[in-house]
From TrEMBL:
Name of protein: V-type proton ATPase subunit H
Coiled-coil blocks: none
Biological role stated in the UniProt entry: Subunit of the V1 complex of vacuolar(H+)-ATPase (V-ATPase), a multisubunit enzyme composed of a peripheral complex (V1) that hydrolyzes ATP and a membrane integral complex (V0) that translocates protons. V-ATPase is responsible for acidifying and maintaining the pH of intracellular compartments.
InterPro entries: ARM-like (IPR011989), ARM-type_fold (IPR016024), ATPase_V1-cplx_hsu (IPR004908), ATPase_V1-cplx_hsu_C (IPR011987), ATPase_V1-cplx_hsu_C_sf (IPR038497)
SUBUNIT field: V-ATPase is a heteromultimeric enzyme made up of two complexes: the ATP-hydrolytic V1 complex and the proton translocation V0 complex.
Record-level Gene Ontology MF annotations: proton-transporting ATPase activity, rotational mechanism
Organism domain of life: Eukaryota
Amino acid sequence: MSGYQRLDAVIATDINMENENQPTGVVIASSKLTAEACEVRNQTVNWQSYVQGQMISQDDYHAIADYDCMGEEEKNIIIQNKGEQLAKTCLSLLSRLTRDQTIRYILVLVDDLLNEDKGRVAIFHDFAKKNNVNLWSSFFGLLNRQDQFIINQAAVITAKLACWGKARLPDNELNFFLKWLKDQLTSPECEYLHSIAQCLQLMVRIESYKQAFFKMEGITSVVATLLRINIGFQLQYQLIFILWLLSFDPRIAERMVGNNAVIPVLADILRESEKEKVIRIIIATMRNLIEKPEEKKRETSVALIQNKLLAVLSILNGKPWADEDIQEDIEYIYEKLNEIVQDLSNFDEYAAELRSGRLEWSPVHKSEKFWRENAHRLNEKNYELLKILNYLMESSTDPTTLCIAAHDIGEYVRHFPRGKTVIESLGCKVKVMKMMTHDDPSVRKEALLAVQKIMVHNWEYLGKQLKDV
């Protein structure tokens, strides 16, 4: 059984997390949507008043009132015999009625209906197709409501309709919905992050949806949410689950390795988490990152080593696990990292450190021998490492990172004859000079030293040229 299949078997019940009526489901205790849905189920709607007020038709009244008062067995019979009429009624009521309490009730009814049997999405799709109804707009229209429960319950239903049947969201609707989910995920005001994450957990299982989410920089939004303070282990699990699903695509996995934040944030959570489900999904994601982009296997391993994961994996390797697949994945990663670390060069470690975006005063930065032998290698891959240093000087707020970035630029110029020309063309020199006015005295000091190296190098080079003449 493949890694996808065996892990999928372990956590399949974690996907449908918003329905407390499912005996096999897993409930998110902290899910706001789940808690509010329980309250909605305990309410009643006076359908008689709606039909008397001619706000709904007699057909819709009988369909919803009969279904609403039946037990589970009788409801199943209605769905089997009059499923499309029930779908028609629910969609009609959602479009015609305006009272928030009633819209809430109908949405919970629809969600429960789908959760009891995923195949029931076909009822809605079949009705929409036969009657030329745009099913997606029926729920997208609710995303503009003021009531946040209505908005997020409509989103969850949309995700289920888009994933549990054969019908797929057309490109325009797909891009709209994924962008909406992404915006909600990164919004500091969103109180329904568990539900937004649940939608994405469903969506990125579908290959075309996965590619669309990836193209709109979805990984960045997931990582940004993971970096928030105190989001809780359940949301951590859901978000890493999304990364795990994305990592099954080799091209996406390669980009995840190249992303300066993915591996560091996974490493940080792994060090801190005590929840087995969180550890399991992180380890599974890391294994995917090592296995999928074959030509990037070494780079991925080095990045994991650079984030101090060998010691963490050594500890995890000695623990007993209820899930034997965790042990297998830990052993696999630990073995691969140990193979790589045996022949890891100083330059490999240095490059991995820069790619991680977390700079420390490790010995290589101050090693004259390292810079003498490796300065020219910062020109490789179209000046990749110099561009990273340049980016860190521009974006980082960490004084240590800024100090080291300025120091390394100075050492590069000092040891590579044409270094001054290169850093000027990349814009590094301007950023180093700007750092001479930084608030932190250590940053000012390193920036000044780097500028001095640039100027001294200039005079030494000029002197050599004159001597040769």
